[in-house]
Amino acid sequence: MPPTPESQNKQSLPIAENVTRRAIVKGGFATLGASAFVAAVSPLRNATQYTSPAAFLQQHYTELSAEDKVDVIARLEAETKENYGADVQIADDRPIPGTKFVYAINLSVCNGNGKCVEACHRENNHDRSTNQSYIRVIEMPQGTMDLEQGSTTYSGTVPKDGKFYLPVQCQQCDAPPCVNACPVKATWKEEDGIVVVDYNWCIGCRYCEAACPYHARRFNWKKPEIPADEINPDQSYLSNRVRPVGVVEKCTFCLHRTRRGKLPACLEACPTGARVFGNILDKNSNIRWILENKRVYILKEELGTKPAFFYYFQ
Amino acid sequence: MRFTHIFVLLTVCTLLSTITLMNSNNGDTEMQFATLNSELEATPGQPSNPTPLSAEASPAKFAIEIHQPDGPPMIELKVPDSDTAEAKIACSTCHSLREPDFSNKSDVALDQFHQGLKVSHGQLACYACHNPQDMGALRGADGSRIEFRNVISLCSQCHGKIAEAFAHGAHGGMNGFWDLSRGPQLKNNCIDCHAPHAPRYPKMIVGFKPHDRFLDLKDEHATHP
């Protein structure tokens, strides 16, 4: 794209004008100069051509006042209408006090059918052409838990003899390496345990993607394509609103549902009943019973990431 | 081994009795629901009365509803030379006139009626589940009568571990709300997923697959297109 004054303007705006954002580019990176840094680490920095100046002037989500949020959300809804022809409602769902979400999967029952992968795709307004989804199901040879021995390319009839199936998505770690890797604090962990991304703050450097040992983060290589009538209009700012190109996204435990008391879409879609979700702080929750009565496993425990995602056998 | 098992320190067995009872509903719908509590009555070692909620949990205003069959199965009979008159008759129509034949233990023995019925459920005989006194009901291990609507009680007496897991949401799945102060939760019946005569869960075909460049894990960190 030939640099027009306008587009240059768009690119440099947040760097020049937004002190907060510059201030949090820390350590060695800062010496590079924040503007050069963003340019150097954003593989799709030209993607800014799709972003309105208003988007670039936006404050970091956590610093927005209530009125700011109303404006930002109104703008995002209007943009979705303009770009996708869909009327959507973007809510600002906040954590429910006294809630810490935990997920568990019964590996004796999961048969790898992939309905969860598809439900995530639809619920979260993923790009149709790539069948993007926050979930990958790994077909594993029985007798090992080494993820690298598994494959996600299986097809046909399941379950296959000698295999078991391991669905992997964001583990909402209590010590999340992805959060620490972000040079601009565009991703953080909220009180209910959900690790979120401010898609309007993300610079697309993909450090978080590389830092995640579970391959749970996705990068938007292109503007998501979704027919208007397939867009899920029930959206949340930090969750399933249509993401701009050039940013990283991830599973949010469907916070636009779960923070309204509902179960995540992947769980509801599971025909085998393998998925269990709930509030670990509630003594009477299903999830608490599982942790107290089943042998539960976590993935890559040796890395010390402290996942809020458990696996068990019945 | 990438998995390491976590030591579960808490051993208190929390009981699922926090669910409020809801009125079992109208018989005019195809589906009926039971409360979880009525299932627990059938699970050995579980109390049948709800205990009060713990102080920290928000009050459960909604129930956990379990899908139930609306009554005994019926036999559909096709009346010859008529396309309208299709009759559904109750099991007892014939069986109240027949002495139970305890030698009919497997589908192989059926040569007069019910041909084509396939039963492969361990080595169970028909009357391990069906009630010889009344074909309109099932039969418990102690000879007690179990209504078809309460079929979960039947399954639970031989599959206690699974039934306990089911009662705690750890088997059989659910829909609706995790937070019962905001909305109800719906659960499938055992027989929605497991046909009683051939309970093995069916095989499935994988439909949906993401087409990313990185489908194989080993290449997942490969660079962009």
CATH class of chain A: Alpha Beta
CATH topology of chain A: Alpha-Beta Plaits
Q: Biggest β-sheet of chain B, characterized?
A: 4 strands, mixed
Distance between the termini of chain A: 56 Å
Shape of chain B: globular
Note poorly predicted spans of chain B: 1-56, 214-225
**Count of DSSP H/I helices of chain B:** 5
Strand content of chain A: 15-25%
CATH architecture of chain A: 2-Layer Sandwich
Beta strands of chain B, count: 10
Rg over C-alpha atoms of chain B, rounded to the nearest angstrom: 23 Å
Sheet of most strands of chain A: 4 strands, mixed
- Strands in their spatial order, largest beta sheet of chain A: 11-2-13-12
User: How many DSSP E strands of chain A?
Assistant: 13
- Quickly give the structural class of chain A: alpha+beta
Number of individual domains of chain B? 2
Strand content of chain B: 5-15%
Largest chain-chain contact?
Answer: A-B, 81 and 61 residues
